[in-house]
Amino acid sequence: MSEKIYLYPVWVRFWHWSNAILCLLLIFTGISMQYSDPAYPMIRFDWAVYLHDIAGILLAVSYLGFFIGNVLTPNGKHYIFRKGIVNNLIKQAKYYSFGIFKGEKPPFPITEESKFNPLQKFSYIVIMHLTIPLVALSGLMLFFPELMIFEIFGSKALHITDIIHVIMGFFISVFLIVHIYFCTIGCTPTSNFKSMFTGFHEKH
Amino acid sequence: MKSRFVIYTLLLIFSVLFATTATVLAQEESIAIDPANIEQNQECFKCHGYSTFSYFNSNTEREVKQRMNPYFIIDSLEYYASNHRTFLCGDCHSSECGEFPHSGQARMEPKFSCMDCHAGDDTHSQYNFEKIEEDFHKSVHSSKHLDDFTCSLCHNPHTYKISARTNEKVADFILYDNEICLSCHANLSKYQLLTTKDNPNVLETHAWLPNQVLHFSKVRCIECHTEINNEILVAHNVLPKELAVKSCVECHSKNSRLLASLYKYQFTNKRSDLGFSNDAILEESYVIGANRNYYLNAISIILFGLVVVVLLIHASLRIIFNSKKRHE
Predict the structure, then answer these.
(1) For A172, which residue in chain B has the nearest alpha carbon?
(2) What is the pLDDT along chain B (328 residues), one digit of tens a residue?
């Protein structure tokens, strides 16, 4: 019988799944708009715009909820870099590259105090504190183009904003694939997925 | 007598001023205007260039000052900047108009149509006026309003100047061309010259359009409301509203319709040095779906592919090592 620890309170699980659904919706509608083709429409362009706009606004609201939640609850401590992050990142990367195949124990076991390993922590901090704010901000500027800083960027303002938005969107899609894959590395391949429903993490 | 002298002196000064301005404009446009024409046209502008005009009424033996019908006022500066700037008023208007009061006959005479001069015009063959006329006759403007709808309703011969070929800024000719459409479709008195219908509110009829302000300032009405004709630069076949383009991907895709309409003149069909497809559009605008960066696309596909390959290798190694461990 493996040990279980309660890591994910209801609000985190609710935020996580709504965030996941919104990101998926935004990625599919975004790709559909970026590579729109009358002959092979992935999603009808006007529907894609509509869904992308709604999902984008909801994601921005969800991010705000996540930010406030992290300020008001202890969950925020997991999204701060601690000393020795570089060495810890190398140690974790070595584990994923070699140790995991030899059956070694993870160098940073999951505890209530530290629910992410250094690589998870690094990627989550970059995604949540840099990529999502940038994608949301550029998205809001594309949604309200009249707010764009045309004085600085001139006629290229829309152009630059969209490129930032698309690049950030791409990083999020890559993150999503990697995130889903690494979630299969748990007690069993599905245990980490289950824990995001139950709130309990199953220890190795 | 004294007042007449003052009027003539003032008119002379204005004539010289207009002549100077017109000459400068003409030099800028590299087509010289014959000063004799300017002098002759000034006879018309004396009245039609101002909001009031004066004449001597021989019946009452009094000098009379009256207001000019605002629709008959011609801005001489605009005229001398227009495509017809080298013309004499009398080239198009009856010679009887030179007399005052204009005779009823002169008012009723049929006016020249544009094609009277432009048809078979070798000097302007690049514009393909015959094809333009053919295209126009297919349009709702022509089919619904027959002979009442003439070129001059849209292209005021006193002010019209070509814009798509001469304006460096696309935004300028978008504004210029859209103003032509709005001169009827946002102006009830002109609109009702041809119909008894209420003028539909273009903002309401286009409420479905996302980012309406941006669309209105970045594309012309004719991009969606005409059928593309590859034989002419600006399509004139205005379609019934039911056939107007409502599918976003017509413009928002790699083979954007805008390249055959708005950016037809600039379109080179080459990628820019920075790797953008449809870079003709990029000069003034950014159209999602139509502007894609070749390099960014290639980098993203390679990166995404690499990530997937690395994960697949990692997953395979995990499966192999786990099954080995189980067998041990």
Answers:
(1) B304
(2) 455 555 555 555 555 555 544 444 444 445 678 888 899 999 899 999 999 998 888 889 999 999 999 989 999 999 999 989 999 998 888 877 878 888 888 878 888 888 888 888 788 888 889 999 999 999 999 988 877 888 988 999 999 888 777 766 778 888 989 999 999 999 888 888 888 888 788 999 999 888 888 889 888 999 999 998 888 888 899 999 999 998 888 889 887 888 777 776 665 444 455 666 666 666 667 788 878 888 888 999 999 999 999 999 999 999 999 888 777 7
The full set of domain ranges for chain B reads 1-111, 117-246, 293-328
Q: What is the CATH number of the domain that holds A124?
A: 1.20.950.20
Cα–Cα distance between A19 and A66 in angstroms, integer?
10
Three-state SS for chain B is CHHHHHHHHHHHHHHHHHHHHHHHHHHHCCCCCCHHHHHHHHHHHHHHCCCEEEEEECCCCEEEEEECCHHHCCCHHHHHHCCCCCCCHHHHCCHHHHCCCCCHHHHHCCCCCHHHHHCCCHHHHHHCHHHHHHHHHHCHHHHHHHHHCCHHHHCCCCCCCCCCCCCCCHHHHHHHHHHHHHHHHCCHHHHCCCCCCCCCCHHHHCCCCCCHHHHHHHCCHHHHHECCCCCCCCCCCECCHHHCCCCHHHCCCCCCHHHHCCCCCCCCCCCCCCCECCHHHHCCCCCCCCCCEHHHHHHHHHHHHHHHHHHHHHHHHHHHHHHHHHHC
- Supply the ipTM of this predicted assembly: 0.90
Q: Which of B275, B31, B230 is nearest to B135 (CA)?
A: B230
Domain count, chain A: 1
Q: What is the pTM of this model?
A: 0.75
Nearest CA to CA, how far is B81 from chain A (Å)? Answer: 28
Nearest to B247 by CA among A111, A37, A81: A37
By Cβ distance, the residue of B211, B250, B318 closest to A101 is: B318
Closest chain A C-alpha to B277 CA, distance in angstroms: 12
Q: What's the distance, CA A40 to chain centroid?
A: 29
How many residues in total does chain A contain? 204
* Structural domain boundaries, residue A72: 4-202
Contact A45 B292 (CB under 8 A): no
* A chain contacts of residue B254, beta-carbon cutoff 8 Å: 37
Distant-in-sequence, close-in-space partners of B255: CB < 8 Å, separation ≥ 6 = A38
In this structure, what DSSP letter does residue A84 have?
T
